[in-house]
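Reading a protein record of the kind used here takes only a little practice. Think of the row as the fold of the chain written in a discrete alphabet. A record is reproduced here so that you can trace the correspondence yourselves:
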Amino acid sequence: MSEAYDNQKLARSDRAGRVARLKAERPAARGSKKKRSSKKASAKSVAQNDSADRPWRGVGLGIALLGLCVAFGVQSATQSQRMRTLYSQLQQDTLAKDALLAQQSRLLIERGALKSYNSVDRLAEDKLKMRFPESITRVTREAGK
């Protein structure tokens, strides 16, 4: 614990010594107050020259953002139209499915009616010219032959 405390003390004293050296060197490096204000003035004039060289910098960013907003708006409108089209197509397909189911049920009823014995006999007589025999002869097979 005492080693850590000693290390902290050394770090503080090193920092204090560096700060004192920087304060001593500062007036010599910067010069008088007039020079400081002239440096500030020259920095301001450089900043003004930069902004004078690029006056449309903010406008370009605004145009880019406006372009992005327009692109997203167009994309959103296109997507909405696509969803409306798909929904109407779904409704049309549902109506077509209902019509086909109704037709299938009618065909099943018709097939059931055609399968009845009366209709089969009538179709056999009318279309195929089949007649019921007048005399029926029974044929049997003998067991030994």
About this structure: The helical segments are 2-30, 33-53, 57-114, 117-126.
